[in-house]
Amino acid sequence: MSEAALQEQLAADRPPHAGPWSQLGAAIVAGVIGAGGLIGSLALGLGRLTQPGPGLWPFVVSVVVTVLSIVLALVGRRGTDTEKFSRFSVLTAVAVLTLVVFAAVLPLIGFEIPSLLLAFVWLRFLGKESWISSVVISVGTVAAFYVLFVLVLQIPLPRLI
After folding, report:
1. I need a surface site. Which of 50, 62, 65, 82 has the fewest CB within 10 A?
2. Distance between CA atoms of 130 and 53, rounded to whole angstroms?
3. What gap in Å lies between CA 69 and CA 36, rounded to an integer?
4. CA-CA distance, 47 to 19, in Å (whole number)?
5. Beta strands in 1-69 (DSSP E)
6. How far apart are CA 33 and CA 64, in angstroms?
7. Rounded distance between C-alpha atoms, residue 118 and residue 125, angstroms
């Protein structure tokens, strides 16, 4: 298949463009999230560069998100890389929901079980991996994180034991 034919096939398979209002909507949503992050990180306390507080890195990330949302609002409306919402957009909502559940149960039951379930759900149901590879990769990932963060770096993560 020639390069031109391949490009034409890829363009034909692509969902329709969502338009400039979708870009602006995405910029507004990202801006609101960034502003919320700024407010939340200030409430945590920034500290100083020599003694950073718990809100310093969330503040830095929130500044980046806010600035990029402003850039998207100004120049992104001319872009054609957005897609209309479809049934496949639900996968993103499911991924976000699983992260919210993960964050909610992490302090209650430790990181092992929620991390294992999150990795498995993402691999098996969102990524359409096989059952075997989903189980093996999930268990391996959680084991590697346990060794790295708990045993080697001795980071006090919420744990089962």
Report:
1. 50
2. 43
3. 13
4. 42
5. none
6. 11
7. 10
pLDDT band at 157 (very low <50, low <70, confident <90, very high): confident
Which two three-digit tokens encode residue 146?
């346990």
Place of tokens 């294992």: 116
User: At residue 27, what is the residue type?
Assistant: A
Q: Residue 12: what residue type?
A: A
Phi-psi category of 85—alpha, beta or left, where left has phi over 0 and alpha has psi -120 to 50?
A: beta
Q: How far is residue 47's CA from residue 111's CA, in Å, rounded to a whole number?
A: 28
Distance separating alpha carbons of residues 90 and 97, to the nearest angstrom: 10
Structure tokens at 143: 């084991």
Q: What angle do CA 59, 103, 133 make, to 5 degrees?
A: 115
Tens digit of pLDDT for each residue in 66-96?
999 999 888 877 766 676 777 777 888 888 8
User: What letter does residue 93 receive in the DSSP assignment?
Assistant: H
Task: Determine the 3-state secondary structure of 47 from DSSP.
Answer: strand
Structure tokens of 7?
């490009």
What is the C-alpha separation between 75 and 26, in angstroms, rounded?
A: 12
Whether the predicted model's global pTM rises above the 0.90 cut: no
Q: What are phi and psi of 52, to 5 degrees?
A: -65, 140
Summarised one tens digit per residue, pLDDT across range 25-40 is 888 999 999 999 999 9
The two tokens of residue 53 are: 């507080």
